Give the backbone structure.
Amino acid sequence: MDITTTLQNALKGSRKEFQWNSKVSLIPQLELKVICGEIVTKNNLVLISRRHGGRPGPRYFARGLDSNGNSANFVETEVILSCGSKCLSFVILRGSIPLVWTQLPDLSFMPKAKLSRDDKEHLSAFKSHIKYLQTQYGRVTLLNLIRKKGYQKQLGDKLSWASSSEGVPCIWYDYNAKKSSDMSLTRENLFKEVSSVLLENGVCYLEDSEMLSEQKGIVRVNCIESLDRTNIVSTILSEFVLELQKVNCQKHALRHAWRSMGNSLSRYYVGANAKCNDVIIWGRTFRGVLEDACSSCVRYYQNNFADGLKKNSVDLVLGNLEEVPEYYNPRHKFIGYFLVLLGGSILAAEYSRSFDHSFLVFIGCFVVFLKVLGLFSYFFLDTPTLLK
């Protein structure tokens, strides 16, 4: 089986967009096909995730769609269940919100998202993306999990407008508002929204290598990162598909497989494990909350001080750079300035007249330092060469 394609499309040949070494192979006839993704096996269950190479890169340097309709963090996950000569498979997609938008790092924990003001640009990119999905997978249904408030509402409203303009079904399911501490209730609410779509899409079913049915449509899931909420909902969707097809599968194994898959996909895109991963298996736990806090800290460091090098490396592997760029990571500047200003604040406080006065001097110096960071954040960020 060709690792770049699905079981249903195995006879149609390789898909170069999922083969990450297609531009750097010396002898195409002897090449070993490489994908960016993960393969997880549990008993007779296999999960294969393939990351599209059209708009590569980590979190804040790869958002939304480009002018050709390539989506950031666009991943195809195929679930394969085998039993003797019988085999069932289906595909679930995830990807960044299919609009033209950016969210560049600025040393804050949540940089502002900027949506293109050109409606024609949105529609052109959206149309190209949907056309590709329809060619590859058939019917397309968008499942949007973002909040219905704040900047996420602005993105959601624009996505609803674009999908309505092109006649593409879009379900806006505010996961954070509708989730429950009781996972069975969360599943029940989601099932009402998507059961008819999943049943209509069907699955690929083979027996003795003969294809008896094909998957006729796809659900494309997104949140802001298309990682944490998306991974939980993708797990639930895969359970729904198996239930609707009346297939007996160990849910425990399926959930563990999705949890492992979610961590792998998250480490590529944000540099740390997926958050809320405990919800998939055990529900929300105190340990899970602590792990999420650690993951948030790692993500902050990676996204601001390490992702420039990652972006350059990915572009180099994919053949997007004609020469190796000269690289310098400015995080050393940040650390140096931080230590100097912190030391200066402590010395200023040390020679103050009283404890209260010294405390105020220290806080004042630190606030000034943070303000300077905000004004000159780009000076300290690790940015990819191509972005400049």
